[in-house]
Amino acid sequence: SSRGAQGPLVPPFFPACQSIWSLGCTVLSVSLLVCASTLLPHSFPTAPPPIAAMLKLDNVLQGGEEGAFRANAESMGWRRADGGRMVVHQTSTVKQAEWREGSLRVLCQAEDEEGNVEDVMFGLDGIDNAKFDDLWRFFEKNCGVYVKKHKVLADVSGDDFDAAMRGVEAAADKVDDAANGSVSKKAREADLMKRVEAVRDGLDQAVSGDKQALSRVFAENGCERIGRLRLVVDTVNLEVYQKDPRWLHLANLAATVESVLKELGKFRVWKPPASEEDSSMQRRQMVRELRQRSGEDGEGEEAEAAAATAAAAASASSSSVPNPLASGPRKLNTENMPMPVFAGLLPPSSSSDVPYKAPAEEVPPPAPVEEPAEVVERTGSEGGAPEEDWDVEVDNPNAVQASAPDGGKKDEQSGQGDTSRIRYIYQTSIREGWVWKRSQYLKKWRRRWLVLQPDHIATYKQRSVGGQTERIDKGTLVHIYAADAEVMQTKAFCISASQKRTFGTRSTKLYMVCDTEKQRDLWVKAIQETLK
């Protein structure tokens, strides 16, 4: 009780311990604060202040002068290396941007001295191709414009073509030197076809590229390059490989190059100069002129039949006919020389004084043409065209009948003559008739005779055997559909196919225009059922 009155019993050493504990806690707190002020800034760094994104391109050309390009969210500009000239545009004025292999073109709006707004072109060259992605993101984010990237257009090197052409010319001379019907001639023709592939593939790329680049190469020296090629194609004496697809394709490409040069107004007829280096070309020029003269007296179908008969007779007796290219220039015996078979290059009624017109069809050639079957005449809804209406080119295929004017009464459903009888050129044909076909490179509409057979579909310049310009085989058809919107013409359809080539496959689209909707539907249905 006495302890209760005095309070709780406190050990004599407790006040001292309490003081020591308080002092220790104070020291520990100060230490922790010092450590925290030292360590925390390094352990938990704060975010740096935002910096405006800047696109930098050095050593780029503007107007032929070297300088630096800088761009941010508000503006973009170029300054010459010495600081003497500067071009600046606001990003809000950018309307369009395009790119092609290190070159950038930007269409902007700017005010002139009078305050009028006009479009100006801002161009940069010599940019590293690896910077395209950075440029694309910059314009998309800051200008709201997508940079359009152009593919590199195929081009052909004059030196490469000359080297390949020298090989073709040498191989062609060996073919002409060989005896007709011999094993060596066949082997030399095979070697020529191998060399033809290089020239053909180069021309194929060139034709699908820029016309001006093609013109710069083939218009040089009075169109010498294409003139040499055309001279070899027209005069080489082939027996086994005369209808080889590689050879036909080369001839079509040569005609396409000539058509492009004519369109640009740069085509010239080339003749070999009188020199020892071109003695082979001189002999070929003589042969071509003699062959042209040999057809002066023939006209129409009779002349063509006589030419075919003479060619067959010459082939049968080829061992006794001297080769005009076997030796140097000399007077040739033209009594047994065969009449030329034009195979659709000239109208049957034309005489030799009409200037030569090369075929303008520039598409890959077909496989060898089948042997002609007996001519069959059938009555149908598609009217035939006169034989003299052989090759017509129009701008608006809807304004001109593909069936060619024949004065006959027109059927309301088919739109073509119902009083004339259609002559099918092949007995196995499923369907034949005239259509307008658009060329793949020049985009010209030309009248073509369309033939559908059980294993392929093909187009011809005339309603006759020979002169095949297009071919799509069974099994290669991808799709066939109405294509009015694609070609801006009514009664149109498209045949899309994927065909094998020497190097991989190639996609082909053939656009046709018929005379009536009903005719178009019949073609689409027949092709779909036959070739799918």
Notes on the structure:
The chain is an alpha+beta fold. 35% of the residues lie in helices and 21% in strands. It is built from 12 helices and 18 strands. Strands 10, 12, 13, 14, 15, 16, 17 and 18 form an 8-stranded antiparallel sheet that branches. A 4-stranded antiparallel sheet has the order 1-2-3-4, covered by helices on one side. A 4-stranded mixed sheet has the order 7-6-5-8, covered by helices on one side. Strand 17 and strand 18 form a beta hairpin. The N and C termini lie far apart (119 Å).
Give a brief outline of the structure:
This protein has helices spanning 2-6, 14-43, 132-143, 158-177, 183-207, 211-218, 220-235, 245-263, 279-293, 300-316, 484-487, 517-531; strands at 55-62, 65-71, 75-80, 86-90, 94-100, 103-111, 117-124, 148-149, 376-378, 393-394, 422-424, 431-438, 445-453, 456-460, 468-473, 477-482, 492-500, 505-513. By secondary structure, it is of the alpha+beta class. The strands form 4 sheets. Strands 10, 12, 13, 14, 15, 16, 17 and 18 form an 8-stranded antiparallel sheet that branches. It has a 4-stranded antiparallel sheet with strand order 1-2-3-4, covered by helices on one side.
